[in-house]
Design a protein that fits this description.
- By secondary structure, the chain is of the alpha+beta class.
- The chain is 20% helix and 16% strand.
- It has a five-stranded mixed sheet with strand order 2-1-5-3-4.
- The longest helix has 9 residues, at 78-86.
Length: 131
């Protein structure tokens, strides 16, 4: 009977850390602290994600697509929704990685145009889609 934990015993902190999975060529996944932004999770896992404004919610270069676990992210606020609306990205699965904070397990896709590389900022600024 010792193998079962009593209900009154605290759950170890590491047992409740959410898992974030990034669908990216490397397909990385890892556990993060609750309230970690998706941008910080991406950095910690070595996912190259653009964030031209430095993570200050003044651009949309860190936009990701939530594939599973939308309800496991912080609620979208007015400023984030406004930025997404301006880019015609008002579907609920679009989030800014700098603003979405992890509450539970999530799977997100990093669109190819959002991968961090020297050509992305130039491409977006010129409005040319290079594939």
């Amino acid at each position: 009977m010792e193998q079962y934990r009593r209900v009154s015993e605290p759950i170890p902190k590491e047992a409740v850390m959410p898992r974030v999975t990034f669908l990216h060529p490397e397909g990385k996944s890892g556990e993060v602290e609750v309230n970690t932004s998706l941008l910080d999770a991406a950095k910690a896992l070595g996912i190259p994600l653009n964030h031209d404004c430095g993570g200050n919610a003044s651009c949309t270069t860190c936009r990701v697509e939530v594939q599973m676990g939308q309800e496991q992210l912080s609620e979208i606020d007015f400023d984030e929704q406004d930025l997404l609306d301006r880019e015609a990205l008002s579907e609920p699965w679009h989030r800014l990685a700098c603003q979405a904070r992890v509450q539970g397990d999530v799977i997100v896709r990093v669109p190819e145009t959002k991968w961090e590389n020297p050509n992305t900022a130039i491409t977006e600024a010129q409005g040319v889609d290079i594939r």
